[in-house]
Amino acid sequence: xxxxxxKHGALPPTLRxxxxxxxxxxxxxxxxxxxxxxxxxxxxxxPARVGFTVxxxxxxxxxxxxxxxxxxxxxxxxxxxxxxxxxxxxFIARENTATCxxxxxxxxxxxALTRLNAGKGHASRPRRGRGGGxxxxxxxxxxx
Length: 144
Hints:
Shape: globular
Structural class: alpha+beta
Number of strands: 4
Largest sheet: 4 strands, mixed
CATH class of the domain at 23-116: Alpha Beta
Number of helices: 3
Strand order of the largest sheet: 1-2-4-3
Oligomer: single chain
CATH topology of the domain at 23-116: Ribosomal Protein S5, domain 2
């Protein structure tokens, strides 16, 4: 099946490269209790692409794999009009993604996408550099 024919039941093309995930992290996002969804407009008319992120904070490998499978299945079952062409979407698992009711997870994914597509997402937060801010230099004469 061609990648541009995302139909109900087929997973859209996936993000593969780290830079694609980082670009989505700098875009808008919508947090929900079971999932966080990030959306980035690419500026083209190619089919929507999706990515999945499950960190070690979620649990051991069995739990992370279960959370990833549930997110992939939720996206696969989405109506095709919720994933806009020319956009990248990243679905980030939260602590209860692997254990929440699947109908609840589906509803939260749908709600997050609907709100993001309506322009009701949150702007990304600036990321701190490595070192957690320990390397900041005080300006001369500032409080010393």
